[in-house]
Amino acid sequence: MDKERFAQSSIKSIFNRNFNVVTLVNFIVMIAYYQIFVTSAFYAQEHFDVSLSTAGSTAGIMVIGCLIGRFFTGNLLSRCGCRSVLIAGTLLYLAIALSSFISGSLLLLFIQRFVTGFGVGVIGTATGTIMAYCVPYAVQGLGVSIFSLSTALALALGPFLGISITHFLGYEILKTDIIALSTFALICAFLLKNPPEIKTASKSFLKLSNFIDVRVLKFAVVVFLMPLSYGCISAYISNLAADRGIEGAASLFFLFAAGTTIATRPISGRLFDKYGENLIIYPCIILSAIAMLLIAYTHSSFILLLAGVINGIGFGNFQSAGQAIALRLVKKYRFPQATSTFFIAFDFGIGVGPYLFGFIAVSYGFTGMFLALSAITFITAFLYYLLHGKNHPLKRPLLRRSISR
Which portions of the chain are predicted below pLDDT 50? Predict the structure, then answer.
């Protein structure tokens, strides 16, 4: 009975004012981001008559901007404070959304997309860090899982809304939609009350440890490798489906994946807190590898959607569990740098995956590419054991560790 009461009080303590605010801000910003991302290449082709590769680069440069934004934000949070950085990030996001009505050249579009990505990097790192301070340590895994549902839900709705709005209403309405969302995000950011004060470890602005945390770097190798497959899925799933005559399933793949992620993250978060990270990470890696195998050989819509479900459970829960691990590796005042390090590795893996494995698809087809991704994902399980898992057995005494802190 006491355990049940403790669990209920801990769950209630997650949903405090600041947690609710940053979760809402993250959801709003990410749903706008994914609307821009999925329509960016087509917009560039339609308005500037450029090649497919050039048009695709307008989306790719958003990822680069996001990486750079994440790199600098860890230090800025320590120096300027959480609330100031979050408000500045949402202001920048709104400003660049307003500038979207000025579209005179391809160069300007690239600049706009880069700054959009930069703003997302700043906001995402800020919200993730504030969330980490809001959640009690004993339920950190569950807290991260619930918070990250905002991104999973945005990933499911954003592309659908972006494509639907541009198809039925046009790009001008999409731009207005993005401005409205950005304005709402800024208003919500001002609702943040008494944000945590973060101790600055070093007065030197250029010191590398102010931007990333070396204690997270070993685990970041795993964090980089896991999203390689997701990056390739995002880039090539439509082409693969068209090549195999199952085009209709491609549009549903991400909805199925996001749905299972949303359904299972609260469960995985509880298991993470109760039994430790290994119970979650190993199955996530194996399931993701199995999903790549299914995609490699599938010629049916059912199998492709089944792969989406499996990958939603595997890769979808790896993201939230991985972020919780990164936070556990550092002291509390290093949460900004740990969050920044995790997402730099994560986003970099998504961004470079299509470039690293695209040549395999050219030479050996999509089957060869996804087989290679499956093999690398299986190897990632072994690397995880060497770099982290072997030192963190199951049933870790979470409550005693939280008290000792």
Answer: 1-2, 6, 396-405
| pLDDT recorded at residue 11 | 67
CATH of the domain at 358: 1.20.1250.20
Task: Find all residues with CB under 8 Å of 83, minimum gap 6, and list them.
Answer: 189, 192, 195
Is residue 144 within 8 Å of residue 273, measured between CB atoms?
Answer: no
Amino acid at 158: G
How confident is the model at residue 196, as a pLDDT? 65
CA distance 202 to 229: 37
- pLDDT > 90: what percent of the chain? 40
Alpha helices in 81-210 (DSSP H): 82-98, 106-134, 140-168, 171-189
Within a domain: residue 201?
Answer: no
Tell me if 165 is assigned to some domain.
Answer: yes
Q: How far is CA 26 from CA 22, 32, 67, 315, in A?
A: 6, 10, 17, 20
For residue 395, the 8-state DSSP code is S
Q: Please give the backbone phi and psi of residue 136, each rounded to the nearest 5 degrees, phi first.
A: -60, 145
Same domain, 247 and 310: yes
Q: Which residue bears the tokens 């996530």?
A: 284
Q: Are 126 and 85 in contact (CB under 8 A)?
A: yes
Which residue range forms the structural domain that includes residue 174? 17-192
Looking at 15-99, list the stretches that DSSP marks H as alpha helix, in order from N- to C-terminal side: 17-48, 52-80, 82-98
